[in-house]
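Dear H.,

Thanks for agreeing to be a second pair of eyes. The structure we're designing against is below in token form, covering all 130 positions.
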């Protein structure tokens, strides 16, 4: 980045963890964020949709819905180092995992989803429960 003398040493793991490697790794954090940005740019609901906090009192999960003109998403974030169960059937119907920061999408069984530690997941929602 510079011809000058850096004020901080280069991290010793720079040969393994760097942008060049991340660009070629489909499961990298960089590529996850690129996918999220693309999804947000292509969705009016994610940008302008109404906001509903689905689990306002949970201390580890942040789960909310964004919806606009028939387009709806549920975003589930696990802010802990422990797996957490989200009961989506309390709030939504026909929810499908669309994007996760883990290589394998979370498994939905009977409206329940186990979010792995530090997992962020975007679900598309086909119909809204009243």
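And this is the sequence the design step returned. I haven't edited it by hand at all.
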């Amino acid at each position: 980045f510079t011809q000058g003398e850096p004020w901080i040493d280069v991290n010793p793991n720079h040969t393994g963890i760097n942008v060049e490697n991340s660009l070629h790794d489909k499961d990298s954090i960089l590529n996850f964020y690129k996918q999220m940005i693309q999804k947000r740019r292509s969705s009016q609901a994610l940008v302008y949709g109404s906001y509903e906090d689905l689990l306002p009192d949970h201390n580890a999960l942040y789960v909310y819905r964004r919806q606009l003109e028939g387009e709806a998403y549920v975003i589930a974030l696990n802010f802990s180092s422990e797996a957490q169960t989200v009961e989506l059937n309390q709030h939504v119907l026909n929810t499908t995992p669309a994007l996760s920061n883990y290589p394998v999408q979370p498994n939905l069984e009977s409206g329940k989803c186990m979010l792995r530690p530090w997992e962020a997941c975007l679900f598309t929602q086909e119909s809204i429960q009243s």
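Two observations from my side: The chain has a mean pLDDT of 86. The helical segments are 19-24, 29-41, 44-48.

Warmly,
E.
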